[in-house]
Amino acid sequence: LKHLRLPHVEYVKLLDRYGKESTIGTLYLTATHLIYVEQDNHTRKETWVLHHHISSVEKLSLTVSGCPLLIHCKTFQRLHLLLPRERDTQDVYQSLIRLCQPVSEDELYAFLYNPNQTEAERRDGWDLIDMATDFSRMGLPNEFWDISSINSSYELCSTYPSLLGIPKTATVATVTGSAKFRSRGRLPALSYYHKDTKAAVCRCSQPLSGLSSRCVEDEQMLKCINDANPHCPFIYVVDTRPKLNAMANRAAGKGYENEENYPNIRFHFQGIDNIHVMRSSLQKLLESPTMSDYLVGLESSGWLRHIKSVMDAGVFLAKAVCDEGASVLVHCSDGWDRTAQVCSLACVLLDPYYRTIKGLMVLIEREWISFGHKFNHRCGHLEGNPKEVSPVFTQFVECVWHLCEQFPCAFQFNESYLLIIHDHVYACQYGNFIGNCQREQQEMRLRERTFSLWPYLLQNQAEFQNPLYKRATHNTVLRPSTLPLHFKFWCGMYNRYDKGMQPRQSVVNTLLALTLRHTQEQKTMTELQRLAVVDGILPGPIGTVSLPPDQNGCPRTTPTTSFGQSNGDCTSVSTCAGGKEDSGLEMSSQKEAEGSSATEHELQTKTDKPVSMVTQKEKVTESL
Amino acid sequence: MEFAELIKTPRVDGVVLHRPFLPTVEGTLCLTGHHLILSSRQDNTEELWLLHANIDAIEKRFIGSLGTIIVKCKDLRIIQLDIPGMEECLNIANSIEALSTLDSVSLMYPFFYRPMFEVIEDGWNLFLPEEAFKELESMTDEWRLSEVNKDFSICPSYPALVTVPKDIDDDSLCKAATFRHGGRFPVLSYYHKKNGMVIMRASQPLTGTSGRRCKEDEKLINATLRAGKRGYIIDTRTIAVAQQAKARGGGFEQEANYPQWRRIHKAIERTNILQESLIKIVEACNDHSNSMDRWLSKLEASNWQSQVKEILTTACLAAQCIDREGASVLVHGTEGTDSTLQVTSLAQIILEPACRTVRGFQALVEREWLQAGHPFQQRCAQSAYSNEKLRSEAPVFLLFLDCVWQILRQFPCSFQFNEHFLVMLFEHTYASQFGTFLGTTAAERVKLKLSQKTVSLWSWVNRPQELERFLNPLYEPNSLVIWPSVAPQSLLLWEGVFLRWNRSTKCLDEAYEEMVHIIEYNKELQLKVWVRSSAAGQRRFMGPCISHMHILSL
């Protein structure tokens, strides 16, 4: 709290996107949030912004109407405030600058946050997603692959997980030798095993091949990976970087595999640009002018081109595994950015499990968290080198969204699930995305000191369901088109807080409300039937409402039950707190929509303000 | 003329049809006077029936004796026919070219089409101006239905009956007509029940360089203002374009002569520019290059999305004047038959819930486009592929439909019809078995005796078995004004039209079916709960009574 220079400022104006139509309210600063409260006679609207969500604070030049403060968030929210007094502005500015980028990890929200769980609940929460379970779901270990604890003390590779999938034929000498020949010891290890074809997706970092170095153990390691797939005589080695970048690395003693030294590899470049290019591309995208030259701005930002390059690489992997039955080894430079994107995207394409609510958690936990995507650096959780920040994870989330758009029935989750995960990656409210690798997480004792996000998401999964989900018809690989015309700007992410730009009625929410009602009505039906039997109107128990069999000939009960079936290991849908936003009500002009209550949601968030959000309600009496 | 003269080779066997995302079909190609038919003569394979009128352009290619005809359709589909035999191929190509470019209206298919269904509700009588006026009369007595144009002599592009302010007599209308381009004097387009404000439409005033004025015209539009109120004139052209029009005898309302009106200029492009825009966007969508930059720059260069934005913005402006400012509006551009109608009809969709129903939308198309004299036959003579020299082709109505789709996408529960309905209208404006979109004006339609000699599109669409697939399962009547966002991020490419033939729709169709399924299941369930609970309710209600009686008897 020592960084809080003043707790609140009154008569603060909040300007809209175009610098027009202001509202007047009070700005509060707490240890964790910035809160803006608008209050008139009938409504009270609260905007909560987590300090960790703030990416930049700018003081603009003085105007006649006040001192402007422009706050940009990592969630693409933008607050344009006008404070009445310069001194207050300076204080708020300095407090926020300090609060939004803590110096030490201990200051992160997760170390303060307590969702009222017992120690046992906390432990169970962390145990919810477990890598060994996922390996056994893939059918591992088996005759070709071992799950090795060779890295259990993080000595072989400090940024890798403790459990590694390694070809059975690879000896300790091969593994350790290979690790020494790879940048930062990130040796080839299993990412995903495709049961049907016995092909594997493996990942690593670039080899330290320089201009002519070679390493027998590394060559042996790749041969072992090749041998682990009996059906295919070769493996693909995919360098996700543009060829030029990879060649430049050779001069620095790094580089890429020479096909002459590695028997039976087929080498490919994929041309995904590096974190610096991605960072500036996103900056341009967000600056992209709002009006007539919108498409020009979109093009010159290059953002969709980059998204397409990630998608193309993911599709390449999925095709190699699925169509050719070939194993693939993927790397970029360090193997924790582009490699994570491409491997996880390939998993989503290949395996329907990763298109479920729980499956996506498992995937993020494995490919991103445990394989050492540097969340601390990439998200800028702490004060540090701004050049390390890059929207790598955002791009992965966007790729999944594009897939959801092309395959509306193939995913168990909806857009809001992707958005909430994205929010939490930056929020540091739960411990999952803190630290740069598993070792750091253990050193910070996150399991004892913070809580895991995943149980929270599972408890609230009712609102993340995709009502159109049909697992039965999407039980194989997805084959998206990657023609440029199938990519579009993701307004739901980048203009999420410009409510006026979003569709005013949401199909997903409407259907979600219906499917939730189905479950309730079925309960009512069962209850009525029970009463009817008790009263003697009905002869005896009859089945619940049933529908004619669907196209696959499977008898279907209700669309909702398919959620339950689809993901057997999910905890059951718990109390559904109603659709997030009652979109049915939110129609017509802004003015008319105002005052429409969001009460259910309100009650839920009253006790627990998870992340940045806007709430609005009828006048309430208590103060903050 | 006999069609047979144009068909040298009526039948070729062994023709292979290629279509994107669909299996190839091998079969017999037949040419009739109005159709190109390809049939494999096997069960379970669909036949291709293509109206010659739907063909926009063809290309021929030869490899040895195998000829290939690429057929480019007005609905933007491109198909390929491989025809064995050079002579056959040339004959077929020549016939298609001749048959698809017949100039005479009376040779068009609607005059030959006999419906395979019984016409229960004749679409030609569904939307008569008299009926619309009755509805208006029930709300206000400030307007009258004038027969001044009954022989189409005052304004050839207006219908026989027009709605005008009650206090303006027919003589004044005749004089006002001489002051407006093409005689299109200001008439009522829309009456806003909520506050009595109106949208009127006209063509540009003929002020010329000398600043001519017309007292009757001024009186006519002032008669629509309530005492002390001001109105807005929305000129769909930029001020520069409007200025230039003066040199050709046109112009705009001078402030001095219309002191009660505030003029606003917008920038909706002229028809020839819109056509270029269509050609470019279709070209971009058919370019399957792998370069993102190329796609985005082509999309941008087509300017299509900016046209959509400008039209929607202008419509929102008109609607805002009416609903927010409480002011009446007069809309015009140059001729008053294109951009004017886009604006007035879209404003009604924003303002008036009835226009978002199937019937209401049909009435809107009938009233604001057909009767208002949008020259469909000229505008839709060619589409995006034609190599012919352009005359007056322009995708004015398609742009209107695109704008409606944008609003529909933003308010997916507020329309009774769905996207398929809009796409279907687009198809029928360019090629149809129905007579609805033939002719250029009401006068011409009367002369062609369309209502006697052809079938109305509405007669077909409104049959329950057809209508079903055009209904929006999410529809919940919404009595409010719906304000669409016109931010560029909110306006998407209308994939249903422009990418329709460039993508597989399997997954999207599946999603649509699933949505319908969920909604129907919900209805079924609700009904069951209702039936069961009312039964249970009776029983429960009787329960206490019985016990009460029991007590009494004790």
TrEMBL record, chain A:
It is found in: Cytoplasm; Endomembrane system. GO terms for cellular component: cytoplasm; nuclear envelope. One of its GO terms (biological process) is phosphatidylinositol dephosphorylation. It is a peripheral membrane protein. Substrate binds at residues 274-275, 332-338. Residues 579-609 have a biased composition (Basic and acidic residues). The active site is at 332 (phosphocysteine intermediate). Keywords: Cytoplasm, Hydrolase, Lipid metabolism. SUPFAM superfamilies: (Phosphotyrosine protein) phosphatases II, PH domain-like. Residues 545-624 are annotated as: Disordered. InterPro entries: Myotubularin, Myotubularin-like_Pase_dom, PH-GRAM_MTMR6-9, PH-like_dom_sf, Prot-tyrosine_phosphatase-like, Tyr_Pase_AS, Tyr_Pase_cat, Tyr_Pase_dom. Residues 554-575 have a biased composition (Polar residues). One of its GO terms (molecular function) is phosphatidylinositol-3-phosphate phosphatase activity. Its main location: cytoplasm. Residues 125-494 form the Myotubularin phosphatase domain. Residues 301-345 form the Tyrosine specific protein phosphatases domain. The keyword Lipid metabolism applies. The keyword Iron does not apply. PANTHER family: MYOTUBULARIN-RELATED, MYOTUBULARIN-RELATED PROTEIN 8. This is Myotubularin related protein 8.
UniProtKB/TrEMBL annotation, chain B:
Residues 123-498 form the Myotubularin phosphatase domain. GO terms for molecular function: protein phosphatase binding. GO terms for cellular component: cytosol; endoplasmic reticulum; perinuclear region of cytoplasm; ruffle membrane. Pfam families: Myotub-related, PH-GRAM_MTMR6-like. It is a peripheral membrane protein. Keywords: Acetylation, Cell membrane, Cell projection, Coiled coil, Cytoplasm, Endoplasmic reticulum, Membrane. It is found in: Cell projection, Ruffle membrane; Cytoplasm, Perinuclear region; Endoplasmic reticulum. The keyword Membrane applies. Belongs to the protein-tyrosine phosphatase family. Non-receptor class myotubularin subfamily. This is Myotubularin-related protein 9. The gene is MTMR9.
